[in-house]
Design a protein that fits this description.
alpha/beta, Quinone Oxidoreductase, Chain A, domain 1, Rossmann fold, 2 domains, 7-stranded mixed β-sheet, 6-stranded parallel β-sheet, 11 helices, 15 strands, 30% helix, 26% strand, oxidoreductase activity, acting on NAD(P)H, ADH-like_N
Amino acid sequence: MAITIPDEMNAIVLDDPGGPDVLHLGKVPTPTPKPGEILVRVEACGVNRPDIMQRKGLYPPPPGASPLLGLEIAGTVVAHGSPVAGTEFPAIGSKVCALTNGGGYADYCAVPASQSLPWPEHYDAVKAAAIPETFFTVWSNLFTTADLKKGETVLIHGGAGGIGTAAIQIAKAMGAIPLTTVSDPEKGELCEKLGATVINYKTDDFVEKTLEYTDGKGVDVILDIIGGPYFSRNLKSLAMDGRLVIIAFQGGAKAEDVSLTRLMTKRLHVTGTALRPRSTEYKAAVAQALKSHIWPLLNTGVLEPIIHTTFPLAEAAEAHRLMESSSHSGKIILTHPDQN
């Protein structure tokens, strides 16, 4: 049976950068998939920190990407672009989740086919939409960039967020030893259940606790979302040949009181990364690594995304307010009631 695709669709748009109130539901042209892309009828999409930054005008989309917010989706494949050598298209009508280059806050989203994966077994759209941005980010940074190995220790800042809860689970599943920082006992309890040793940064010095838990050695890898205010303290928390990967700077981008001597004497590696500007080929490689190493664990329930709450697409502003409050634990998902 032929699938009817409308010329226009609902999407969350913003006329100018600003606070959550600039987000509103509007009508925009339905995208046409480019060569190697699929068009997905979106049933749910994830809310992520880069969406907040883009809304504020601080994180423009890369050239050629959709100007709409939204970096991860789950839904049904409804159309294919023209074929590209080496790219396999999921069948029309199949259920996929995908890492997008933008455009997820909409009824339809065009995305490279190589950045899509089938829903894990027994998943619905909400659970499937909670995977791509966080799991791609965690795998890319912990295992591609930082080369985290079995038996190594990793300190994950912000353990109760979407990235943090995924990182704890994946690190533990791959045989690493996760530590994490949290802001309150309730979030700490969640992270302990996921398998992490918890440090409450409001009541304890995370450097002292990290060294205590590692018998003075320090951790092998740190996944940091805070940035400048933590930079010097992160270096103090690393072991010899330790790796610091900075993926966000929620606390600010400027670092002070940094000892370059420590970098040299401990042979430390410091990397800053952003996934969105990466090439389609890089993201495709991450997708295949997830399919091989992580999808079997999702299928059997060994790993599972932690979902805090959902909002209808039209209430994207409320979802952004919640994320900016940092009072959530796990993922925030926007749903499309008319699409299910």
